[in-house]
Design brief:
The protein is α+β, with helices and mostly antiparallel strands and 173 residues long. It is built from three helices and eight strands, in the order ββααββββββα.
Length: 173
């Protein structure tokens, strides 16, 4: 069994900006009558390494989502039913047609206890990258919108497990 915490720091302040926990284990079974009283598997280090690889691998989407490139809304079009927005990132930044993205707006509030301004990233919509994509621009088809989208709001790709990840998790042992 392997457990750990991955911390991402902001430089130069050295403030922790993201903490990602990971955990996994491996197991094996064998007929102990062939090993006498030695109950330690011969490849214990290999099993620990394997559990560590799986644990780190299980955090990859959370890590990729944290480091996903950010682009900004620069244009919005509406035909009455559908909304599309053009953003300042494209295929050179890792976006692909059909990929899920999330749009955010930056909001500031005054904390009533400290009287200090706090900045929050608020999810305002989700969408899919259309087939209208260039190296540094992409059009996004908006699917779910909770607030108005404005010029300057930002977008990040959203990574999740696909069928291949599910299949690999079934056969990994």
């Amino acid at each position: 069994s392997v457990d750990g915490i991955l911390k991402i720091y902001s430089i130069p302040s050295m403030k922790v900006v993201k903490t990602i926990k990971f955990s996994d284990s491996t197991s094996r079974s064998e007929d102990s009558k062939f090993y006498g009283h030695n109950h330690q598997p011969q490849d214990m280090a290999g099993m620990i390494n394997k559990a560590g690889r799986y644990a780190i691998h299980s955090t990859r989407n959370e890590f990729k989502n944290f480091l996903a490139p950010k682009g900004y809304v620069m244009e919005q079009r509406n035909d009455g039913d559908d909304i599309i927005v053009q953003v300042t990132i494209g295929s050179a930044d890792g976006l692909e047609t059909g990929e899920d993205v999330t749009l955010y707006s930056v909001k500031s509030t005054i904390n009533p206890f400290t009287d200090e301004e706090e900045i929050h990233d608020v999810k305002i919509a989700s969408g899919i990258i259309s087939d209208k994509i260039t190296a540094h621009r992409a059009w996004i088809i908006i699917k779910d919108k909770t607030q108005e989208i404005k010029i300057g709001d930002y977008v990040k790709a959203y990574y999740s497990n696909g069928f291949g990840d599910f299949f690999n998790s079934l056969i990994r042992y």
